[in-house]
Structures are given as structure tokens and as C-alpha cells.
Design goal:
Layout (H helix, E strand, L loop, with lengths): L5 E5 L5 H13 L4 E5 L6 H10 L7 E7 L4 H6 L6 E6 L6 H8 L8 E2 L5 H13 L3 H28 L1 H8 L1
Parallel strand pairs: 1-2, 1-3, 3-4, 4-5
Length: about 170
């Protein structure tokens, strides 16, 4: 079994429908990961234990998602020297509360933060962090970005061929 490199943690299992996108992109790149529910408020001792042992357990990056008060990423970052990527979850007020709670960290406790519900980008950012030292991952990321460019080119070609109205009608 491959060594787990990335931990995906979330404050509640209700975050899983969003966070599956982190797991999915990591799977597409062949990167081993684990997914856990760890609440900064309901089980802070479990979060502390996880964060403090993450490096010894082989993790390289932690992705932490939470909605509402959204303290999971910050609490995790305070207890590890690993990079922590926060994913604010849209649980209320369009996720603005979670975004602010995740991004507004005090000096000394950095948390990289992606968009509200930006789980896929969190997975990609974790891969970019790993790709700093792993040329195979870096090459897969280059290939992925080439694929994105090709998709944009194909959409432009189709838009030119069909025109705006037919293009939009086809997308419905």
C-alpha cells in the first residue's frame, strides 16, 4: 500500500460532498491520502493529536475544511509545521464566515486558503507543494495544465462554429 502523503480533514461529515473533490483529484494523480472527520470544537483533543503526529505519520500536507466558525485549519496549523490548506465550506451566509475564519490567521500561524468550497483547488495546491521535490508529480501537473489549455481551445472553436445562442442552448 502506498504511503499516505496528504491528510484531508473536515469539521463535519456534512463537508464530505464538497471535500470529495480533493480526494478525487488526488486519486487521479495517484497520490495516497486519508480522509477524516475532526472537529476543532467538538473534539479538539483529536485535532491536536492528529496535527502533532501528522509529520511522524508520513503526511506532507494537510487539507482542512470547515464551515461556520471554521477554526479547523487554524487550530491544525497551530499544532504542526506542515503546510495546511484551508477550505472554507459554504454552511451559511454564502461561506463568508468560513472564509474569514480560515484566511484571517494571526502572524506566525499561516494557512493557505482556497475559495469557498474550493476543494479541487486545495487538492491541486497540495500536489504543487509535493511537486516541489517530486518531478513525477510536477510533470503530471504540467500535463494537467496542458489539458486545461486544450479544453479552452476546444470550447473556443465550438463557440466560433456554433455562435453564442446555439452554444448556450447546447450546454443546457
Amino acid at each position: 500500500m502506498a504511503k499516505v502523503l496528504i491528510g484531508i480533514i473536515m469539521g463535519s461529515d456534512s463537508d464530505l460532498p464538497v471535500m470529495k473533490d480533493s480526494a478525487k483529484i488526488l486519486e487521479e494523480f495517484g497520490i495516497a491520502h486519508e480522509v477524516k472527520v475532526l472537529s476543532a470544537h467538538r473534539a479538539p483533543e483529536l485535532v491536536a493529536e492528529y496535527a502533532k503526529n501528522a509529520r511522524d505519520n508520513g503526511l506532507k500536507v494537510i487539507i482542512a475544511a470547515a464551515g461556520g466558525a471554521a477554526h479547523l485549519a487554524g487550530v491544525t496549523a497551530a499544532q504542526t509545521t506542515l503546510p495546511v490548506i484551508g477550505v472554507p465550506i459554504n454552511a451559511s451566509i454564502d461561506g463568508l464566515d468560513a472564509l474569514l475564519a480560515t484566511v484571517q490567521m494571526p502572524p506566525g500561524i499561516p494557512v493557505a486558503t482556497v475559495a469557498v468550497n474550493g476543494a479541487k483547488n486545495a487538492g491541486l495546491l497540495a500536489l504543487e507543494i509535493l511537486g516541489v521535490e517530486d518531478n513525477e508529480i510536477a510533470q503530471k501537473l504540467l500535463d494537467y495544465k496542458k489539458l486545461l489549455k486544450t479544453q479552452v481551445e476546444e470550447k473556443n472553436k465550438k463557440l466560433e462554429e456554433l455562435g453564442v445562442e446555439k452554444y448556450l442552448a447546447q450546454k443546457k
